[in-house]
Inverse folding.
């Protein structure tokens, strides 16, 4: 028996004229191998065209699962739109092949041929080409890419980069890790200061030099440690900073408020000149009250900042995970302003933290490197720094070189992974050819081998409530109802910030106050707070089996993170 809430969700999934949802809601159409969970998404897909945004944001295993969905859309005779500014040619081709194979099944079933047309669109124009025969798509796509590369080369240069050098020790012991990480963070701080001096704007009211920057790190726990370091460290005498941590392991309500604020303050279409009249109340207050002539507003973020955020920063410092991560984060720099930029405004770290620690595989989770396919970890060797200085755009990602050197060049590694995905001679249930050209779709083996978002099956969904003035983390547990999991998952409250760190916060978040704003004042106030917490207090822990082995800390300012000294350290 469905709950009323679930029934309403199912009704919306089925009957909304235009459904905007995460892809997870539709993946059940091909990924369900038992039970009836495929029925609703399949019925929706039968009557709807499919649009998938940021397709290359998924892992290779997830892309195989998405190709199965695209194949099914073709089999149902629906149209498919793929959206991305950084889609590699091989990924575009394998998606086309999946769709074309599905459409062939549709045509065979109905005894008539549905014409297959490929439309390429970008900000410069539109190209429509029939592509019904095998071999039609590749030259069509290449023509579009060459035209796009030419057009991008004629645009103002908004982003230039440098590689921020850092010394890497020859021999590393466990005791060195903490010191090494601090040196890495200090190097990021130095890069932020240099970029601020080159890229700041001037406040019209006070004449102070102001900049908004993003420091991108690959993982949540490192993001929190970096933010704490920057809150407490010594900056240059003439600089003040205001910081916030931004990642996905935050309470839903607080993350919503943070994103709403950032979407507002980093919308800078009206700030085309170097002298700016800042009017947003929080920014205005920080500028007026700081005692220095320079103030940096910094978002310390994980890859959640790379996709779907319409933010415009003055500069960025990047811990690299892939070439794609550099391009995507660069898209948040000077996003709304079209002036040519002559000085570097992006610093890419010479190593990421895993590479600095000399781990065998460094560009992974997120990234494309594997134990089988490794690449040089020093960006001075695997990246073309001159190309970064001249311009950072999507060209290396969308334009595949004729000869690939995946062990020597970071961008070639990514093209090599996509080339493997698109290989025509692959066979078996583990590859997409097994689904579209063989009979593996009659079994559940492809879904078993390449399960969509496999790790998310182990995630724990908790919700945060207040009891006796303390925050507790609870979980819905079937017949047992709501169960307190605070101690089971070793979650404790993070230590209070120092006065200096408190003063350096960009915005101060308060979960309890946010709950009370959304609950009605009355006699049953605690019950109403609980009801609001169940709606908006969700927070996700990764992998329930591993989470119970770690110690976790929670803070309204930093979200949920591992206590330092856990398994990730080496």
């Amino acid at each position: 028996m469905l709950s009323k809430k679930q029934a309403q969700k199912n009704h919306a999934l089925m009957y909304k004229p235009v459904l905007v949802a995460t892809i997870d809601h539709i993946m059940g159409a091909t990924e369900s191998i038992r039970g009836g969970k495929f029925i609703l998404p399949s019925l929706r897909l039968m009557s709807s065209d499919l649009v998938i945004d940021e397709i290359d944001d998924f892992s290779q295993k997830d892309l195989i699962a998405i190709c199965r969905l695209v194949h099914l859309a073709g089999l149902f005779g629906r149209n498919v739109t793929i959206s991305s500014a950084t889609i590699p040619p091989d990924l575009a081709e394998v998606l086309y092949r999946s769709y074309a194979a599905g459409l062939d099944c549709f045509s065979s079933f109905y005894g008539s041929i549905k014409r297959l047309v490929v439309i390429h669109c970008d900000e410069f124009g539109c190209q429509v080409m029939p592509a019904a025969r095998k071999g039609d798509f590749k030259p069509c796509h290449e023509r579009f890419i060459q035209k796009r590369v030419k057009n991008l080369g004629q645009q103002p240069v908004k982003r230039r980069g440098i590689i921020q050098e850092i010394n890497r020790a020859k021999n590393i012991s466990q005791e060195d890790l903490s010191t090494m990480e601090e040196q890495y963070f200090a190097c990021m701080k130095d890069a932020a200061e240099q970029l601020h001096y080159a890229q700041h704007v001037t406040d019209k009211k006070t004449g102070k030099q102001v900049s908004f920057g993003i420091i991108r790190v690959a993982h949540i726990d490192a993001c929190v440690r970096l933010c704490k370091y920057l809150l407490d460290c010594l900056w240059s005498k003439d600089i003040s900073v205001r910081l916030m941590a931004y990642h996905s392991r935050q309470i839903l309500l607080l993350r919503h408020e943070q994103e709403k604020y950032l979407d507002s303050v980093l919308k800078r279409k009206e700030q085309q000149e170097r002298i700016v009249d800042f009017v947003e109340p929080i920014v205005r207050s920080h500028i007026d009250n700081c005692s220095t002539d320079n103030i940096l507003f910094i978002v310390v973020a994980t890859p959640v900042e790379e996709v779907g955020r319409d933010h415009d920063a003055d500069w960025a410092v990047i811990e690299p995970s892939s070439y794609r991560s550099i391009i995507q984060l660069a898209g948040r720099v000077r996003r709304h302003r079209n002036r040519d930029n002559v000085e570097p405004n992006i610093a890419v770290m010479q190593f990421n933290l895993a590479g600095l620690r000399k781990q065998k595989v460094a560009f992974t989770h997120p990234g494309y490197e594997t134990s089988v396919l490794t690449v040089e970890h020093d960006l001075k060797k695997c990246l073309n720094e001159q190309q970064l200085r001249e311009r950072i755009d999507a060209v290396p990602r969308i334009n595949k070189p004729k000869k690939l050197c995946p062990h020597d060049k970071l961008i070639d590694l990514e093209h090599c992974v996509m080339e493997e995905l698109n290989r025509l001679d692959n066979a078996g249930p583990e590859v997409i050819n097994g689904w579209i050209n063989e009979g593996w779709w009659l079994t559940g083996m492809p879904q078993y081998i390449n399960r969509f978002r496999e790790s998310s099956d182990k995630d724990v969904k908790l919700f945060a409530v207040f009891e006796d003035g303390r925050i507790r983390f609870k979980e819905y547990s079937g017949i047992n109802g709501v169960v307190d999991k605070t101690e089971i998952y070793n979650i404790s409250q993070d230590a209070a910030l120092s006065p200096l760190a408190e003063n350096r916060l960009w915005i101060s978040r308060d979960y309890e106050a946010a709950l009370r704003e959304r609950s009605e004042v009355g006699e049953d106030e605690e019950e109403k707070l609980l009801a609001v917490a169940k709606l908006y207090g969700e927070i996700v822990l990764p992998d329930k089996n591993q989470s119970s082995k770690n110690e976790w800390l929670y803070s309204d300012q930093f979200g949920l993170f591992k206590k330092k000294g856990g398994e990730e350290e080496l």
User: Anything to note?
Assistant: The radius of gyration is 25 Å. The longest helix spans residues 176-199. The chain is about 40% helix and 15% strand.
